[in-house]
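Protocol step 4 of 5: obtain the predicted structure for the target chain.
Materials: sequence only (see below). No template structures provided, no constraints applied. The aim of this step is simply to have a reference model before the mutagenesis design in step 5. Sequence pasted as it appears in the construct record:
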Amino acid sequence: MELTVKDVARALSVSEEAVYRLVDERGLPVQQVDGQLRVHKAELLEWANAQGLSVASELFAAPGAVVLPSLAEALEAGGVVHGLAGGDTAAALRGLVAAMPLPEEVDREFLLSVLLAREALGSTGIGDGIAIPHPRNPIVLHVERPLVTLCFLSRPVDFGAVDGRPVYALFSLISPTPKMHLHLLSRLAYALRDPDCKATIARRADAATILGEIRRVEAGLGSHGTAR
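Step 4 output (structure tokens):
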């Protein structure tokens, strides 16, 4: 899950020197491992989303013949919810967890605590009124299939997003494996860079319309998420 500076440079299509500048000037999140800079794949995607930058989808491709679910499939399973109540971040996340179609054995209070702890590390608000609260470690819930739930808040909430705008839409990803988690996060990032798809979300369209837009966007991707 950890990327070297060289990996990050390749993923962002920049030089290694530019990666160091991104750390210093734009807050690219890094860790020191044995004296070397390392970047977590999920953190790179989150940061790139907030910065409006593209990440090479090949970085998240599954090896061999592994078949990964589409974002549309995961969103159809997780559902689209309109009018979610919540006056602040904690209330919004509690409502999100309550709305997710999780298996009975999943401890929703534990999931909420994970999401709150993740938010305390740094806002998952990526800008333009959208946040992507999700557990950093996707295995903790032991779900059988991935779920992406989209909730539209009845009133926008201050999530401390990078652009300062209140959040009106929450995308939450629950996945059984890290590979699946990163795959879906990558596809969501790609979809949110599509102007028509983003506009459909901004007008809080119905579930069928949003799913149609997601399917359209994914039709432009190869089986491993590579743009055609």
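Step 4 remarks: Confidence is low (pLDDT under 50) at residues 223-228. The beta strands are 2-3, 31-33, 36-40, 80-84, 125-127, 130-131, 147-157, 167-174.
Proceed to step 5.
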